[in-house]
Amino acid sequence: MKALTVKTLRSLAAVLAAALTATLASCSAADRPEGEDNVLTYLEPQLFRTLYPPAAGFYPNGGVVNQLTDRLLYQDPETLELSPWIATDMPKVNADATEYTFDIRTDVTYSDGSPLTAENVVANFDLFGRGDKVRTLTTSEQIANYDHGEVVDKDTVKFYFTQPSPGFLQATSSYNSGLLSDSTLALDNEGFGPGNAVNVIGSGPFVVESESIGTDLTLKTREDYYWAPPAVKHQGRADIDGIHYILAAEESVRTGAVTSGQADIARQVSAPQESLLKDRGINIIARGTNSMDNQFAFRFNHPLLQDKRVREAIIHGVNREEILRVLFSDSYPLATSTVAATGLGYKEQAGAYTFDPEESKQLLDEAGWTPGPDGIRVKDGKRLSLRTNTALPQPRSKEVMTMVQDQLRALGIEIVVNAGDQSTQNADSKDIEKVQIYHSLVGRADYDVITSLYGINNRDAFLNQDEQGEPIDAHLQELLDAVLDTPDTEGREKAVEKVQDYITEQAYALPLFEEPVVYAVRPEVSGFSPESVARPWFYEVSIDRSDKGEK
Questions:
Q1: Mean pLDDT of the chain
Q2: What is the DSSP string of 105-168?
Q3: What is the DSSP letter of 373?
Q4: Per-residue 3-state assignment (H helix, E strand, C coil) for 20-64
Q5: pTM: predicted TM-score of the whole model, two decimal places
Q6: Tag placement on the chain: N or C end, fewer CB within 10 Å?
Q7: d(CA 429, CA 436)
């Protein structure tokens, strides 16, 4: 095979996007072109939709923003400990967590040559904390109660909050708070979207070099980068020369490309492929999100779900162990609460989610739902038919819902799975008439994440608000607000525990499993370790292609 040119790499991207596995099957690691050996090829099932940091929770968005930007603080992915990064030390925080003062480095520049200044840092957080409706830029769900930032002097900034905001400390370590240049902060929502990636300027170890909308994105390594977090082993310029993101929607294409050596890392490997890839010498790296588990949230204000007994019947009618056995692997631990066991504030909800179909039937009988002619239960002329979304970013969501359909139909509950692409799913998920059981999770290694998923001012998974925007279950919202507003760590932990207990008591959710992000990694690649909520971080990666033989 001839050496691949940049133009050929673009063609490869198109081939991958079209899932033409035959082309990849004929290639091996030995076919890499001169000068391209040290560029990491990374396969994504979906490409980014925006590079605006507060919207980087979507896996492909965060997978890029995490390479382009630095943060004030760094969070260790194993211990979740926070330490300085662009900040020179941990900040001074007042007693009620309404004022944070950071000293920052004065030797950092953005990739366009502009300096990272105190004024610039304040401008970043003023945008992330307030948003901009005119430019349709949202506030960060991780920054609660933000008021304003202040430049104290050339290397000191201070942030003020209207109420306690203890989660701000961790928020400053997240890619959702990735620092941007002044020119980038002036962009509107479209300016952060596909086709404009080269205009998104950070101070991180990689820089956007080129983009082909809908197929691929190329980052190059910044030569003068020398302000990595002190806590990480590698310092200075990244070892690799760049990253080539390629869309490969079909899993067979991703796994085929990695096993053949045509790609280095692929994200979102399904459980059945894990052992097959290991047998081919491919490393499997699975990282949990340290936060909210993969779960069903019940929209309890819908007429069919207002009776707690119906919600309990669904909980005890889903055989989670069977779903994990059939569809998943040991990388997916069974959930024991709505918060992951590795998450902050986790409290086991012992015995809350046991599979007991006989109890489910009894609960439905007591609630007045009787089997109809087709086996689906009816009451007052209405069928017990509920709709759920398809959570496209979540692993095997369609297969999970198919199994849940079968399990619940045996009890007389019909589940209709909402069809459509991601845009349709996003829109329909806010309509209680279209989605009554919401399949989702949120990744963030902080106590506040439980409010991010359930709070009415955040994702509002339960749709817990009336037409006037007031909470339907006011007590639930009070418990969630306490997580945000309690300044001390012990108090926040207890606040998260109370939310979990209440959700269990009210049968508001069914957690399925602790969701990891699973990567297939070539043996030539070392130093790859996802960050604290499992998004990729390539700064410490090295590639050794001295042995280019195919595995």
A1: 91
A2: -SS-B-TTS-B--HHHHHHHHHHHHH-BTTTTBPPPTT--SEEEEEEEETTEEEEEESS--TTH
A3: T
A4: CHHHHHCCCHHHCCCCCCCEEEEEECCCCCCCCHHHCCCHHHHHH
A5: 0.85
A6: N
A7: 8
Residue from 447, 67, 440, 28 nearest 256 by CA:
28
Only one residue has tokens 């190329």, namely: 218
465-519, pLDDT tens digit by residue?
A: 999 999 999 999 999 999 999 999 999 999 999 999 999 999 999 999 999 999 9
Contact 515, 289 (CB under 8 A): yes
CB contact at 8 A, 7 and 204:
no
CA–CA separation, 78 and 454 (whole Å)? 26
With a CB cutoff of 8 Å and minimum separation 6, the contacts of 295 are 335, 338, 439, 440, 441, 509, 510, 511, 512
- The values of phi and psi at residue 349, to 5°, are -105, 75
User: Looking at per-residue confidence, does 524 or 441 come out higher?
Assistant: 524
Q: Which residues contact 113 (CB under 8 A, 6 or more apart)?
A: none
**What confidence tens digit (pLDDT) does each residue in 379-405 have?**
999 999 999 998 877 888 899 999 999
| 6 vs 172: CA distance, rounded Å | 37
- Amino acid in position 395: P
Mean pLDDT in residue range 287-302: 93
Angle, helices 474-485 vs 489-506, to 10°: value is 160
Q: In angstroms, what CA-CA distances link 162 with 130, 149, 407, 453?
A: 12, 12, 48, 22
CB 23 within 8 A of CB 521: no
Instruction: Please give the biggest Cα pair distance in the chain.
Output: 75
| Kind plus residue range of the DSSP H or E element containing 212 | strand 206-212
Q: Both tokens of residue 239?
A: 């070892």
Other Cβ atoms less than 10 A from the Cβ of 6: the count is 13
Angle between helices 397-409 and 308-317 (to 10 degrees): 110
Rounded Cα distance between 262 and 15, Å, is 12
CA 537 distance to own-chain centroid: 14
Cα end-to-end distance, the chain, whole Å: 18
Per DSSP, the residues of 99-118 read EEEEEB-SS-B-TTS-B--H
For 286, other C-beta atoms within 10 Å of its C-beta total 18
Torsion, CA 529, CA 533, CA 535, CA 539, rounded to 10: -40
- Cα–Cα distance between 91 and 192 in angstroms, integer? 30
Position 4 confidence tier, pLDDT thresholds 50, 70, 90: very low
